[in-house]
Amino acid sequence: MYRHYKQERESTQSIAAKYEFYAHIFNTEFNISFFTPKKDQCDLCESYKNALDEEKEALEDGYKDHQKQKELSRKEKAEDIKSCKEPNSSKIVAIYDLQAVMPVPIGESSAFFYKSKLNCYNFTVSDIKNTTTRCYFWHEGIGNRGAIEIGTCVFEFLKNIAECQPNCDVIFYSDNCCGQQKNRFILAMYHYAVSTLNINSVTLKFLVRGHTQNEGDNAHSLIEKAIKKAKKSGPIYVPSHALRNVSIHNFLSKEYLSATQFDTQLSLRDA
Ligand SMILES: [Zn+2]
Fold first, then answer.
1. What DSSP assignment string belongs to 253-270?
2. What residues does the DUF7869 domain cover (predicted)?
3. Hey, how many other C-beta atoms are within 10 angstroms of the C-beta on 128?
4. Would you say the pTM of this structure is higher than 0.85?
5. Per-domain residue ranges for the chain?
């Protein structure tokens, strides 16, 4: 901005103020500042919004199609949620998502910045019908964050649903991560679940890329706030300490996955 200002002053042969003075005026005399986006923005929508007029024409069709898809996906989810809440409905609508990685140890002191980190993962499944959120928590010493681990968590959720509400029709919503849930291993797990558990059907619906904000994000942001608060009163050293913050909210039922549960899933892949 200063460069533009300088160029403009020079073009009219006027004297330009020094950068320091310009910055001082800019920061103290005007009620303006740089905008920080609140949440992750969609690449496609942002590139269309930021495109020049002539570029916009080329992007127009793709953008319109994307907007239509977004609306349709929202409508579909709203309809599913409405119908699952009807009395005697056999439908269960659940949305699952992996939370951003939580590394330990973390603390306010800069010394933590240089420590080797152990990554902790938290996978949440939000059951919209029963308004419960289940957290599956593990660290990288137990498992990665691929199809095997995600599959194990979803299968555990299905096992629980089959016991509590037998003969239901489960509809899952998720984002489009191929390494985690949009792959053949997870499909095989659903097939296995439907043929061995007391579940009528499992339907998968994927949210539109860039617009995957969902009900599970509420749980994630609550957990992130709890971790932030806990960090202020002292460092978080070990995964169990991080887990305590994950399960701090009463509505979250925590489930700490053990290594053996991952082994069962591994054998499922080999079958
Ligand atoms: Zn978009």
1. EEEE--HHHHHHHHHHHH
2. 173-231
3. 22
4. no
5. 2-34, 75-270
Q: From the CA of 204, how far away is ligand 1's center (Å)?
A: 21
For residue 96, the CA-to-ligand 1 centroid distance in Å is 20
CA atoms within 13 A on the CB side of 261: 19
118-127 and 102-104 as β-strands: parallel, antiparallel, unpaired? antiparallel
The residue assigned the tokens 């409905």 is: 89
For the domain 75-270, what is the CATH superfamily, name and number?
Ribonuclease H-like superfamily/Ribonuclease H (3.30.420.10)
CA of 1 to the centre of ligand 1 (A): 29
How confident is the model over 214-234, as pLDDT tens digits? 877 888 888 888 888 888 888
Residue 271's identity, in one-letter code, is A
Q: Which residues contact 245 (CB under 8 A, 6 or more apart)?
A: 223, 226, 227, 230, 236
Residue recorded with tokens 């059907």? 201
